[in-house]
Write a structure and sequence with these properties.
Strand content: 15-25%
Number of helices: 11
Number of domains: 1
Largest sheet: 8 strands, parallel, barrel
Strand order of the largest sheet: 3-4-6-11-12-13-14-15
Distance between the termini: 13 Å
CATH architecture: Alpha-Beta Barrel
CATH class: Alpha Beta
Helix content: 25-40%
Shape: globular
Structural class: alpha/beta
CATH topology: TIM Barrel
């Protein structure tokens, strides 16, 4: 077997995984207009059930906050819960484990996707380095409305309800999405959070909403079935922070104090604009299972796990085009590269039609 360190069991909180290859959360935009996962979604996740753990795509915790052309899934309605139950049942039948990544789009949302509702954020700062897809084509991001402090308990309650629904849907746990320039990350980083008071200013205040959501999720699931994703360096969605290393250390220490199942750390920046070592403070402060992702090859993943730098590796884009990625890594064969043109397009092309490795390859 190639890359043997990736094929030893690992404990993530209440779960023991058979391998250390995690399927990262990957938004694919194949839900229907009511944000209900469709039958192809069942097939897609089932094809990838050999992963040590599947992290679902970003899943709307609260109605009315769509950020992906209106076609990302939700977990706030009974129809969505029933549809996700088909996914989890099928993944479990193949011996897999799957967490639901619960998420709020924040200022990345658009009124044209949400019945005219203005996006919300910690501060009235819009995303300026990109445009978003809407029913009327690509449009500039809108200036968000700053949430009032007295509205934030409702956000936390919405995440708690999503965690409860994820349990009803048969997931094995939840991952709180605190990354990539969406609402919880917007509060976390000072480039997007310019408020004062209990939820702005120093790191401890900016992290307050994320920690309240994590506490709500652990009240539902227990800490051993809750993980958190952060991306302290990633500039996606016009994000930045003045001290990402200190931010990482603080968040990692708080998650460690809560005894979470894992910390899912995106180690870099999609665009290479912000640099720094965030893995070291995360490893130092968080004593549970550390997942690292962004750009790992199987060879680097093997070295990283063997050295104890991380406990498991989250693979992203290669999981799109390699449904049997675990088998391919074990066999030491080359991975298929995905077609970026079909990442978010409707239908099976580039979604469920990537073939498994030919036997004996």
């Amino acid at each position: 077997m190639h890359h043997a360190s990736l094929f030893t069991p690992v404990t993530l909180g209440a779960l023991t995984l058979p391998n250390r290859i995690v399927m990262s959360a990957l938004t694919r935009c194949r839900a229907d207009a009511q944000h209900v996962p469709t039958d192809p979604v069942v097939e897609y996740y089932t094809q990838r059930a050999s992963s040590g753990l599947i992290l679902s795509e970003a899943t709307m915790a609260i109605e009315g906050h769509s950020a992906f052309a209106g076609s990302e899934p939700g977990i706030y309605s009974a129809a969505q819960v029933a549809a996700w139950k088909k996914v989890t049942d099928s993944v479990h039948a193949r011996g897999g484990k799957i967490f639901c990544q619960i998420w709020h789009g924040g200022r990345a949302c658009h009124s044209l996707l949400n019945d005219g509702a203005q996006p919300v954020a910690p501060s009235p700062l819009r995303i300026t380095n990109d445009e978003t897809y809407t029913p009327q084509g690509k449009k500039p991001y809108e200036e968000p409305r700053a949430l009032r402090d007295d509205e934030l308990p409702g956000i936390v309650a919405g995440f708690r309800h999503a965690a409860e629904n994820a349990k009803l849907a048969g997931f094995d746990g939840v991952e709180v999405h605190g990354a990539n320039g969406y609402l919880l990350d917007e509060f976390l980083r000072d480039g997007s959070n310019q408020r004062t008071g209990a939820y702005g200013g120093p790191i401890a205040h900016r992290a307050r909403l994320l920690l309240e959501v994590v506490d709500a999720a652990t009240a539902v699931w227990g800490a051993g079935r809750v993980g958190v994703r952060i991306s302290p360096l990633n500039s996606y969605n016009d994000m930045k922070d003045s001290d990402p290393v200190a931010l990482t250390g603080y968040v990692a220490a708080e998650m460690n104090r809560r005894g979470l199942a894992f910390l899912d750390l995106m180690r870099g920046d999609f665009f290479g604009l912000q640099k720094g070592d965030v893995v070291t403070p995360a490893r130092r402060e968080f004593k549970g299972a550390l997942l690292c992702g962004m750009g790992y090859t199987p060879e680097e993943a093997e070295r990283t796990v063997a050295a104890g730098t991380a406990d498991a590796i989250a693979f992203g884009h290669h999981y799109i085009s390699n449904p049997d990625l675990v088998a391919r890594v074990a066999a030491g064969v080359a991975l298929t590269e995905p077609d970026a043109n079909t990442f978010y397009s409707p239908g099976p092309r580039g979604y469920t039609d990537y073939p498994a490795m030919v036997s004996g390859a």
